[in-house]
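YM 10:42: Adenylyl-sulfate kinase sequence, as discussed on the call
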Amino acid sequence: MATNITWHQGLTHAERTSYLNQPGLTIWLTGLSASGKSTIAIALEQHLLHNSYVSYRLDGDNIRFGLNKDLGFSPEDRVENIRRIGEVSKLFADSGTIAITSFISPYKADRELARKLHQDAGLGFVEVHVDVPIDVAEGRDPKGLYKKAREGLIKDFTGVSENAPYERPESPEVYIDNSEGTVEDGVQKIVTYLVEKGVLKFPKA
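YM 10:58: structure's back
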């Protein structure tokens, strides 16, 4: 780590959230590929914006086109991928934005690290497990990734490769069984949790 840098404190998080009249936090969606994370995240972002809450979605594929384009899918690269996203989402949350992330984030330790980054900074972190049986995910498979993984064309594929397991969250704040429910059902579960915890109000005060 460089020794010639200094942390500069500007506005506090409390000041930013007071001006924006909303909390800054991260809503962290995790689940298998094709579980519906991104679809729910997009709908959630739209719902929040339509209700005057400043929010921004960080998507797994999109981030790998830019910030994390130097990373592959080895266990080490997966860890670094999520570490960076944890740091970026923390910055968004500190700005007073509601950050919505949709990443497989298969390892429990990495998700806990992202949570700790937020907690240490006094920021909210809501883990959402978007769950489907793997056969349902394979049946959807809009990108054909499971088929390629089964054929050996993709290595280190989560849920298929032996060295790429998905470690299910043990106690997420929100659990969504997305095998049969609608996108609206998923969004409503997240919103209901946030309202019940006093994080958000509808309509925005």
